[in-house]
Every structure is written in structure tokens, then in C-alpha cells.
Amino acid sequence: MNNVEYLVGGKDLCNLPLTAYSPEAVRFLDDLSGMLMKQPEARAYPDLMAAAFWCRRGNLMKRKEGCPEASIRLGRGLAFHIAPSNIPMNFAFSWFFSLLAGNANLVRLPSKRFSQAAVFCAAVNRLLPEYPEIQKRTGFVAYPADETVTAGFCAQADARVIWGGDDTIAAIRRLPARPRCVDVCFADRYSICVLDGQAVLQAGERQLGRLAEGFYNDTYLMDQNACSSPRLILWVNDIDAARERFWGATATYASRRYAIQGMTAVDKYMQLCEDGIQGRTRQKVIRQNGNLLYREELSALPEAGGIPPRGRGGFFYEYRLSSLEELCSIVDEKFQTILCFGVPVETLQRLVLENHLRGVDRIVPVGSAMEIDIIWDGFDIVRSLSRVVQA
Fold first, then answer.
1. Is the dihedral of CA 372, 376, 380, 381 positive or negative?
2. Class of the 190-360 domain?
3. Is the pLDDT at 275 greater than 90, yes or no?
4. d(Cα 168, Cα 300) in Å, to the nearest integer?
């Protein structure tokens, strides 16, 4: 196909399935983990190191233990992956999950050439010749947006893994695929963070530092672009001193690591102006550390079905909850993750279950937003991308 660059592997992929968590796949990923961990250039990228750490053998075997029927599961054949353009290493995890499910994989990388993705692909290329069964089932491609090319790949697919906005998913689904093709789609979602003011005040300096670091990794590290980055910061047991302590620690941590780009600074200012023009319900706006951190306090939550406002580059919206139950009025199927500090995850899980909420698939402590795993958006991805051979 024209304009298609094969960065890993070749054109003619074998689509004969392997068993789920096959020994070949586990050994290959474990060796890849070791290779990346030893590379100085890889250690410069936290998201690449997270991917390397995830695919070590010990972690993979824990995941296999959670799938006791793995020995009677086979992959579906050839999986075609479309990765999001704004998360550099998402494509790698998509590939990991499908490889563990037993599939051959054709992965379209983000159109933007991320340095950490190049380091990752180079490592995969070095290792693949030692694993011929994996090599003949692996292809990573890059090409400009072209529906004809995408349609050609879809026509071969036994599974499609689509990461993107609702419009992207709708467009891909319109393209023909094999009759038994399974689509696993990760659509537009958004997330929130719940902080307990009393817990923030009572935290020791070391714990507060870890909280600030975790919040930075959940937000600034991806410029708040990830679906799991919180759009709203919600306070229970709210105390002004707790807010000042939390945001002060966050600003201090970010000032040592985050370099705001000129266009991002302009976007933040434009967001502030648009909020004023649109009459968004807000009580006050606070700017900290120059242009590093904006806080806009809302006087009301969005109406049910409304989309929470979204900031980028250190622009955060916050709101004081009268109680946790107030969340129930706004949560719909678009809500993905609740991050929390000071509020037990079990409390929030009960809130979701007992109120039969259509949204929220994941509840994790602050600092865990980017920790993608086999269960994501409520899907068990390995099981979704494999089939049971019943006897």
C-alpha cells in the first residue's frame, strides 16, 4: 500500500492463533522488558519504563493466574490496532494485550513520531529474530490518514482494537471487516479526582510530597490529554487550608519538572477567556506560580449528561461536594476513572454499585491514572480478543 511505512515486521503476517499467554509470548515480552530496562536511552522516558516494567515475567504470570482457562483459549487471528495520537506508548500496551491473547498483530502507530516509541520499536526489531513465531505475527506501521489504506487493513482483520474519539470509532466501524471480526473500542471518556480535605491536612510532609508527585504524573505528564486524567477535582470535608496545602505542593513539584510551551500558555489563557464569555458557573479563579497552575472553582456541577470542563497544561477545575452522593447526579457512561485520596476506594466502589451508575469502570488512588492494564474501560481485553475452544 502507498505511503505505508513498516517500522517493525513485514507485510505478510501469519494469522494462525496462539494460545492465550503462550510460553513464546511470555518469554518474548520478558526478554523485551529486560532489554529496555538496561538501555540508558529508554530510562529517559517514564512511560517507556512503565511499559517495560509491566511486561516482565512476574507480572505476566500474575495476569495468567487471573485467566485459569488460558490453556483452552486461542487468539482470534489477526488484530488491527489504531492507537491514539496523543499518548506515546499506548500502542505498546494494546499490542501486549493482544499478543497475550494469542493474536497476530498489525499496529498503526501515532502519526506523531514520539522519541520513546522509536526507542521501543528499535528494541522490538532487535529481539524479534530470536522469536520467529512472534516475528511472523508482528507488524507496526505508520501512514498518513488514508481511509483506503485503513479499509485494506480492516478487510483482513479478525479483531479491531480502536483507541480514539467517538467520530474515529464510528468511521472505522463503517469499514468492512471479516464476518466474525470483533471490535474492542475505547471511546471518549473522562475522569475525576476526589480529595478529602481532612486527609490532606493530616498528611505528613513525605506523604504530601508523594501525593503531589502522583497528581503531577496523572495530569501534567500528559498535559491532561489522557482520558484517565481528571477533569474535575472534587473536595469532600473541604477546608481552605487543605486546598492551599495540596495546590502549593503540586505547584512546587511541577515547577521543577514541567516546562510550559508557548502554545499551551496561550491555550490556557484562551480557555479562561472562553469560560468567561460562555458564562460558566464559577466562583473564582486562582493563578499560582506564574502561568504554571490555574484553578477555577465551579459554583455548580455540570447538569446530568453534561460534559465536565477540560483544562490542559495545568488548568484545573475544582468543586466542593456537599456529600459523595452528589456525584450520582452527574455520572453517566462517559465517566471512566475516579482517582482518590483520603476516601477509601471501597467506599467509592459501593457508591457506584449501590446506585447502579452507568459510568465509572475504575477507582484507583491518585498517582495511578496512567497504569493501564488488561482490564480497561470495563473490558477484559485478553478475553475479548480470544475465544474458548469448548469440549
1. negative
2. alpha beta
3. no
4. 32
